[in-house]
Amino acid sequence: MRRPDAEEATRKMHRAGALLLALSLSLFPLGLAAQSPAGPWRAALELDGGSLRFGLELAGTGEAGMTGRLCNSTRCEPLSGVRLAADSLVLEMDDYAATISAVLAGDSLAGEYRNVGNRGPRVIPFHATRGSWPVRRGPGRLLGRWDATYYTDWQTSPRVVEFRNGARGLEGTIISNTGDYGLFGGWAEADSFAIARFDGSFVFLLTGRLVGDTLRGLFHAGARSQTPFTAVRSTGAPHLKRSTEVTGADTTTAFRFSFPDLEGTTVTEHDPQFQGKVVLVDIFGSWCPTCHDEAPTLVQLYREYRDRGFEIVGLAYEVSGDPAIDRRQVRRYRDKFGISFPLLLAGTNDTEAAAATLPQLIGFTSFPTTIFLGRDGRVRLIHAGFYGPATGAQHAQVVKEFKAEIDRLLAERPPPPASPHGPP
Amino acid sequence: MTALQDRKRETGNGEPATGGRAACRGRPQSIVVLSVCVLLPVRHSPLLAQLPPDLARERAAFSRWLATAPNSPLAAIALAPIGGGISIGSDGEVPLAGLPRHRLTESQGSVVLTGPEGRRTLPRGRLTPLGGYTMFVAGPAGRSTVTLFGPERARHDPSYFPFDSALVLAVTLARPDRPASRRILGPNGLEVEASDAGTVAVTMVGAATALHVYRIPGSSSDESSLMIYFRDQTNGNGSYPAGRFVELNAMPDGRYRLDFNRSQNPFCAYSTVYPCPAPWPGNALPAPVRAGERYEPK
Fold first, then answer.
1. Beta strands at A278-284 and A379-384: parallel, antiparallel or unpaired
2. Is the Cβ of A351 closer than 8 Å to some Cβ of chain B?
3. Which of A152, A349, A357 sits opposite B123 (nearest CB)?
4. Mean pLDDT across the stretch B108-134?
5. Which of A84, A339, B87, B179 could form a disulfide with B92 if both were Cys (CB 3.0 to 4.6 A apart)?
6. Rounded average pLDDT over A220-224
7. CA distance B247 to B261
């Protein structure tokens, strides 16, 4: 997308400023302290099909240690490390074994984003200039909800794209059959628009134009993948599969699970704390952004319903498979959200392997998956994915549906207590 | 210096950028440094002057990945099916010096590592360090494989044919007769579920060849590559005998860029640890493609 002239002028001014600064530093060697990269940066990854803009915020000093955040619109994620040595800056994203390394020259950073690919390096050019991306609001005719169709080779798949104007200008999200992609920051100019999300691992950019009543454009994933799409205004008719139609289950017997909690004690569906109660089983991972979106809702539901015969158990599917590391990650997740219901270490986050640990599920596809069990322990409803706060009305709707389901199940008559002598 | 590097020096062909690239390796990739990379060899060889900066950058990144990544094919020790269980370690079926005996088993889709430190489930598709070695579990459930990498690595810097701008083509993808998916070996010798994306027509020496294209999954479900595994008249005579992979890149007009200068050897060219993908039926070009990665037998 073409940069507006005003922005170009600002860039030139920054460059001129950098030159002046460099000149004054060379003239006055006493002032020659290493330049600090602290402050906001307008950062971008250069994908094959366009620029992915995101915000980068750095704080602290080289001596005392620096911290940083990656920001998409108003939502920021902390970097796991920031290292500065002379003019070389390294930003670390440990969760994804990824780094950005760049050279600091005046008011600009230039370098590359890199993580370890399995068939070769995954390298994307990176650059940034000091300051914040200008706030660019989307035109009214773009805002709202669109039913999109992605074209991959000879197949199509549905998505919903939502655009809003927020504090940082145009923002939005993309929703698939299994949930949303989190908050995207965006910009618009005349009939063109772009929304982007970079969290250290996922590299997503949606670009396009409004042509008549239709959006036409490309969804970029990583440096190279480009998927064409078209979109028309949502009519309100369902465009995506309902999230309750994605995953099924064997409902002939009680739902079985048996995994260690964070103290190493095995917890199963037979434990007294679950008997005769409505139980929400949450399949999640501390690495999963959508699970982070769901956690506050679960904490709220637990607070609201636990005294009425409601329990939650979280089954964590983690990255490393090393119990010590996974336990630490899940504890951090528990503490971040103030979770007081049990969290169990259930396995690794490979979808197939996770499905194998819960053989009663049919068609398990997504993290999180939320399973509602009746007082008899049998599966009553399964929600695949979760609509996070970035989806606005969708988020409010899913929270409403969760509450309605819990209310409905709590109203059911408790099963008769198991008799030690068997059925009469 | 390895035999491969010796040969490269003898022929003086292929990668004329040895001086320029060596100067760049390990340096930050700023725009200034890149322009030095491209400009330096101009005095020595007019060929590299034509090498587009993005391709020069890709090749430099690939060389660095081969030389430093824990899962570089140059560091590979073994690629084995886990099957009914496999032992690794100093006295294991896969001997790994200095490592106590461990066992890898697969049950219900999960790959479990058992050793002196206990049992743990290994994540699929990610690198797991183990006492100076690195494990990579992949493959569909029930047919899992483990690739093991060690601290030592062979020395090898890929060499390339001179850049040929005539072999950068814009092609149109034609619909497959019956869209289907198929299990194939990817460039890294691992089985993947690839979907038939159709064919592209390439005309050489007056004959049109329809090259089959498969979509191969990438690091996330949203990222994938359109790939062609092809053979040509240089195979066994300057290029790798089994064929080479080349990726299609989308162009804004809906066509794809097929740049044979970006052809790459499968990992079996770097190490005998990797199985070689079988040639894709029909993907044989009747002319030599003197572009992309070279290969000289050891």
1. unpaired
2. no
3. A349
4. 87
5. B87
6. 91
7. 11
Measure CB to CB from residue B250 to each of A105, A226, A356 and give the nearest one: A226
3-state secondary structure of A289: helix
Q: Per the structure, how many domains does chain B have?
A: 3
Global pTM value? 0.74
Helix or strand holding residue A217 (H, E): strand A214-221
Expressed as residue numbers, the domain containing B10 is 1-72
- Structure-token match 């290493």, residue found: A34
CATH superfamily for domain A243-411: Glutaredoxin (3.40.30.10)
Residue of A nearest to B219 (CA): A117
Quick one: closest CA in A to B186, which residue?
A119
Domain-terminating residue out of B114, B149, B184: B149
Does A365 contact chain B (CB < 8 Å)?
no
Q: Where exactly are the structural domains of chain A?
A: 35-130, 144-233, 243-411
pLDDT tens, residue by residue, B234-268: 999 999 999 999 999 988 888 999 999 999 999 99
Q: Which pLDDT score is estimated for A418? A: 57
Interface subset of B 210-229, CB within 8 angstroms of A: 215, 218-220, 222-226
Residues 188-207 in A contacting B (C-alpha not used; CB under 8 Å): 201-202, 204
- Given A112, A155, A225, which is nearest B224 (Cβ)? A225
Domain A35-130 in this protein, CATH class: mainly beta
How many alpha carbons fall within 13 Å on the CB side of residue A30?
Answer: 0
Q: Are B271 and B73 in contact (CB under 8 A)?
A: yes
| Cβ partners under 8 Å of residue B111, min gap 6 | A353, B82, B104, B105, B121, B122, B124, B137, B144, B146
What type of residue sits at position A288?
C
Cβ–Cβ under 8 Å, residues B297 and B210:
no
CA atoms lying within 13 Å on the CB side of residue B60? 26
ipTM of the complex: 0.70
Q: Does residue B125 sit at the A interface (CB-CB below 8 Å)?
A: yes
The answer to whether residues B164 and B47 touch, using CB atoms and an 8 Å cutoff, is no
- Nearest partner of A67 among A51, A52, A83, judged by Cα: A83
Q: Other CB atoms closer than 10 Å to residue A196's CB: what's the count?
A: 25
CA distance B230 to B239: 11
Give CA–CA dist A11/A129, Å, rounded.
8
- The tokens for A144 are 């709202």
In which band, very low, low, confident or very high, does the pLDDT at A283 lie, cut at 50, 70 and 90? very high
Mean pLDDT of the A195-214 span:
93
Among the CATH numbers 2.40.128.120, 2.40.128.460, 3.40.1160.10, 3.30.70.270, which is that of A144-233?
2.40.128.120
- Can you give the pLDDT at residue A115? 79
Q: What per-residue confidence (pLDDT) applies to A28?
A: 41
Amino acid at the residue A323:
P
Q: Taking all residues of chain A, what is their mean pLDDT, rounded to a whole number?
A: 87
Q: Are B261 and B167 in contact (CB under 8 A)?
A: yes
